[in-house]
Specification:
Helix content is 64%, strand content 1%. It has 734 residues and is an all-alpha fold. α4 packs antiparallel against α11, α13 runs antiparallel to α14 and α14 runs antiparallel to α15. The longest helix is centred in the middle third of the chain and has 37 residues.
């Protein structure tokens, strides 16, 4: 609507078609050198020097990197807790879960662009980035704790007491009390108080999750990602991009941050490993106490960042870039190195995410492990140990050979192993091979955070060469929003497919395999098989008191083999394909160390009032004029500008109506369907439709809520740029 208003008020397309007719070689995104704005002294957002803070201190690096520790701990707690707590323990429908995640991610995807551009455009005397972190991160701490600890619905899961149940007064872990417990159970089964171990149907005390649980999950899931990843991580990542301009110091800065990041990953897993031995069958208690530990660490990290890191002086003058969001996003997407970066970032992020989301399913239902939690936490610690050991190696190789070379060869070396893992039968999967796969994932994660983050900082320098503006917020939106989108691809899509082929929560069992039973003497409680055990809540090795002693726990079985095939396909085959794409993107990435130095030299040349050549293209750099008319032009693509005013309005109106019609179709599908069909429609619609609706329609309409201000009428620049030519009167009058 705003874009249509611009066309109607300014006659924009007629003026630019006139320019094109008179000068076909003219670029709508640039002006002549005489029109270009001074490089670096007239407004904040223009750096007075392309080179800054090239002797970044180790103290600042550590203060900045330490904040990543609790964020990483949150990430590696929330992802597995979503499935372990809500789906497995509290019996939330997997379709309902997928639907909520899809809708929350789609809405938050749009908000990331608003936060990024606002962070760039609004500056305070405390800086542009740190105020966001200080204000929003405390809300993230509270949201995370309430997300992983839904105490109104967990009942006595954290502080369980089974004395109220039959035979509950007998200590189940006492060797002397075991015969007495067995005798009590026999009597209770005989008089019908307890069901027999092989009864075909069991009265469930774990009904489907109530609607209130879904509301709780949706509220705090959205709040957690909005306050932590959107409002905190976007400004935090942008802060790191502008701490130094040195090519090698950036590698060191992000290497230090990666060390703290993996230490953060280690905290919840080390705590979880200890707690899983204390609460072997109570996964809710494990995550509740883990969240409490992370909350304490978070407060310390926030204080260290607030007092230990200072923003650049240019960020504290109270002014910003004053570039509308649509223009800023369009400029970023016209940056070829940035597009290549996104092509690399998406698949390698997916490779690092899939093990966290799907490995617990693979261990339980693929490898048939009842005690999957201990191996899962051990595997994550192996990944973290490999990452910490690999960080100095990647740091050295990157400084020695270059960023794109390390990225290409490490990804290429790991790719064949993932394809090989896909063809190994899950039940024949040696534990050692699981650990080897963890080492590869750890190395790839190091490369992603050390190499790619420093690549993005170089790309922002290249953008500053062409625009004269520092736009870290806009560029780091990709870091957060891409993570949000990958969460849908790597977390929601597998769940939808698994549900479609017959996935059952906890293998169709009420409890067992990490989900605590109400009765302390039960290892599992499933239809047709109840695992009465002398010390069932204390260990997975306790033999059943009735039935075949060595039988497998039913809670590790899925009725369909297709469930395991889907897990294997996403966990291994898709990872192999993604690594091939990473190799291809790294091969064509253009910014080397020499090219980056030339970019900084060219930026300084323009700042001094001289001319410069783009080191990547060999063409002269001509910056856009900072005028209202030029910013209006950059709201539109070159193809849109080539259209007449009538056709441009028609196209924009048709696009808007198309998305509105698609949204109405989703609502109609929800109204006409019910049960699982409705949840499929909403979840798939959020992935395939609401996300494009937020990005395309939102980027063109909603992101212009802060439109380009009209200049005063006396000083308003003319949109017709062909004055002074013989055709001026005829062309402009038309």
């Amino acid at each position: 609507v705003r874009r249509l208003h611009i066309v109607r008020r300014s006659g924009l397309s007629r003026a630019l078609r006139c320019d094109r007719a008179l000068n076909p070689a003219m670029s709508y995104a640039s002006t002549t050198p005489a029109e270009a704005a001074p490089a670096a002294t007239d407004s904040v957002g223009r750096s007075t020097s392309a080179r800054y803070n090239e002797t970044l201190s180790s103290r600042t690096m550590c203060a900045y990197g330490f904040f990543r520790l609790p964020i990483s701990g949150y990430d590696l707690t929330v992802r597995p807790a979503r499935t372990a707590v809500y789906i497995e323990a509290l019996n939330q429908s997997i379709l309902t879960h997928a639907m909520i995640v899809s809708c929350c991610k789609s809405v938050d995807f749009l908000l990331g662009f608003l936060v990024g551009t606002t962070s760039d455009n609004v500056s305070t005397r405390w800086g542009r980035r740190k105020p966001w972190v200080v204000v929003c991160f405390p809300f993230a701490i509270v949201s995370m704790f309430l997300l992983v600890t839904p105490f109104p619905f967990s009942g006595d899961a954290v502080f369980s007491d089974s004395d109220d149940f039959p035979c509950g007064e007998i200590e189940p872990d006492s060797a002397t009390a075991c015969p007495a417990l067995e005798q009590c159970l026999v009597e209770m089964i005989a008089n019908g108080t307890l069901p027999a171990h092989n009864v075909s149907s069991v009265e469930s005390s774990n009904p489907p999750a109530p609607a209130a649980l879904s509301v709780w999950f949706a509220l705090f899931y959205f709040a957690y990602y909005f306050f932590s990843w959107t409002c905190t991580m976007i400004p935090y990542d942008a802060l790191g991009m502008e701490l130094t301009s040195d090519y090698s110091k950036r590698v060191s800065l992000f290497s230090v941050r990666v060390v703290f990041q993996f230490l953060g990953y280690a905290v919840p897993n080390a705590v979880g490993l200890v707690l899983s031995n204390i609460f072997p069958t109570n996964i809710i208690a494990v995550y509740a106490y883990t969240a409490l530990v992370l909350g304490i660490v978070s407060l310390a990290a926030l204080l260290v960042l607030g007092f230990g890191v200072s923003e650049r002086p240019e960020a504290k003058t109270g002014q910003g870039n004053e570039v509308p969001a649509v223009v800023a996003v369009r400029r970023a997407l016209c940056n070829r190195p940035y597009c290549i970066y996104l092509f690399i970032k998406f698949p390698i992020s997916l490779v690092s995410l899939l093990p966290v989301n799907l490995m617990s399913f693979f261990l339980r239902y693929g490898m048939k492990m009842e005690d999957w939690a201990s191996l899962y936490f051990t595997l994550v610690l192996v990944i973290l140990f490999a990452s910490l050991l690999g960080t100095p190696l990647v740091w050295y190789l990157t400084r020695r050979f270059g960023k794109r070379e390390v990225l290409m060869y490490v990804s290429g070396a790991c790719c064949p192993f993932f394809f090989a893992f896909f063809f190994v039968p899950p039940q024949s999967f040696p534990t050692a091979v699981i650990y080897i796969a963890g080492v590869f994932v750890g190395l790839l994660t190091v490369v992603m955070f050390v190499v790619l983050d420093s690549m993005l900082a170089d790309i922002i320098d290249y953008d500053a060469l062409h625009t004269g503006k520092r736009s870290e917020g806009v560029y780091t939106v990709a870091e957060t929003n891409l993570q949000q989108f990958i969460e849908v691809i790597g977390g929601v899509v597998p769940l939808l497919l698994m549900s479609a082929v017959g996935f059952e929560n906890n293998g169709g069992c009420e409890c067992g395999c990490g989900v605590a039973c109400d009765e302390a003497y039960m290892r599992w409680k499933c239809p047709g098989d109840i695992g009465y055990s002398c010390d069932g809540q204390s260990t997975f090795d306790s033999p059943p008191l009735f039935g075949e002693v060595g039988r497998q726990a039913p809670c590790v079985d899925q009725g369909s083999d297709a469930v395991v095939w889907i897990i294997r396909a996403f966990l291994f085959a898709l990872s192999g394909v993604c690594l091939l794409l990473v190799c291809l993107g790294a091969k064509i990435y253009p910014i080397t160390k020499a090219a980056h130095s030339a970019i900084l030299d060219a930026t300084e040349s323009l700042a001094a009032g001289g001319e410069a050549t783009d080191p990547l293209t060999g063409k002269a750099v001509v910056r856009s004029a900072a005028s209202h008319a030029q910013l209006r032009r950059e709201h539109f693509s070159a193809r849109e500008l080539s259209l007449s005013s009538h056709w441009l309005k028609t196209q924009l109106s048709g696009r808007l109506l198309l998305w509105l019609g698609a949204f109405i179709a989703i609502l109609a599908g929800m109204a006409a369907s019910g049960g699982e069909a409705r949840q499929y429609i909403v979840a798939i619609g959020a992935i395939c439709l609401l996300r494009p609706l937020c990005t395309l329609c939102g980027a063109q309409c909603l992101l212009t809520l802060r439109p380009v201000k009209q200049a005063p009428s006396a000083a308003r620049p003319s949109l017709c740029l062909c004055r002074g030519t013989p055709l001026a009167c005829k062309c402009c009058s038309r």
